[in-house]
Description:
The protein has about 375 residues and is mostly helical. It is about 65% helix and about 5% strand. Helix 3 links the parallel strand 1 and strand 2. The chain is elongated. The two termini are about 25 Å apart.
Amino acid sequence: MRRLRAMIVKEIWAVLRDPKARLVLVLPPLIQLFIFTFATTLEVRNVDIGILDRSSGAHSAEIVSRISGSPNFRTIRRLTSPEALEKAVDRQEVIAAVVIDEDFDRAVTAHRPATIGVVLDGRRSNAAQIVSGYLSQIAGSVGADLAPRSQGSGDASGGSVVTNWYNPSLDYIWFTLPSLVAIITSVAGLSITSQTIARERELGTFDQLMVSPLRVHEVLIGKMVPPLLVGLFNGTLYLIVAPLIFGVPFTGSLILFYLSLTAYMLALIGVGMLVSAASATQQQAFLGSFLVTTPLILLSGYASPIDNMPGWLQVVTYANPARYFLVIVQGLFLKAMPAAAVFHQLWPLVIIACLTLSAAAWLFRARME
C-alpha cells in the first residue's frame, strides 16, 4: 500500500503540477458543455422562407400569417414570380418556398380539396425535410380549422390531447445535455490517460519505472487514479450545472450515476492505456486518442440512431462503452431509470473495462520486458 500510495501521489502531482494543466482539466470541458448544448441540435430555427401567393385571398393570408408567426422562421420573403422563387432558392436566400395557386381560395370556399406547393433546397436535405414538416403542420392546422364540421355531431370539442413523457415541453436541450455528459467526459478521460505512459517515455522516466520495486499492477493503478478522479469531478460539475443553469432535471439515483460513471471511466481508461502503451511519444498518443475518440462518439448513438446503421456496424457498436453509458445517463436524468434497467446496461461496461484494462496491463508488461 505504501508503494501504491506513492505512485498515486506521483501521478496526481504530474497532472496538477502545471497551473495551466489544472485549468485545462476543468475549464475546456465546462466551455464545451455550454457551447455544444446549444450547438448540437436537430431543431431548425432562424431560417428564411419564401412565399409566392398567387391567390391573395383570406384563406391564403391565414396560412401566410401562421407561417410568419412561427418561431422557427426568421424572415418571410414575398416572391412575385416563379423566376424570383428559382433565384431565391438557387442563391440560398431561402431554404424553402411556399407556392399558393390562384384557385386556392376558390377551392377552399367551395369545400373542394386545395393543395399548397413547397419547393425545398435539396442541398440542405436534413434541414429542408425538417422545415417541410413544420410547413406541413401549419397547413394541416389551417385545414383542420377550415374543414366544415360534420352534420349531427353532438360533440363540438373533438380533437386529441398530446402528453409528452419525460420532456413535456420537448425542449431539445433536455435531450442533448445528458448525452454531452457522456461525450465530453469520454474526450477528457481519453486525452488524459493516453498521455501517461507516453509522457514517461518522452521524459526518460520510463526506465526508472522498470527498475523500481513497483509491480505492473501498482504502476497501472497509480496511472488510473488521476483520470478517474478528473472524470468523477467533471461528472459532478455537470450534475450541478445541468439543473441550475439549463433547467434539465436529474430524476434518478446518484449512487447509480456514480457507479455507472466509474465503470464507464474505467473502460475508457483501459482504452487510453492501450493507446499510451503503444505510443512512443506524447504526439503519437494524442493522435492515437483522436483516432479512438471519433468512432467512440459517432458509434455511440449520439449523432445518429444505432438502428439506422448497417447491420455489421451495429455489431461493432457493442464494443463501444459510450453506447451503454449514453442510455444510462439519459435514463437517469430524464426518467428515473430503475436499478434493474441500469444494471442491464452496466454489466457490458464492466466486461469492457475488464477486457481493456487486462489488455493494457499485458501490453505494458510486454513493453517493459
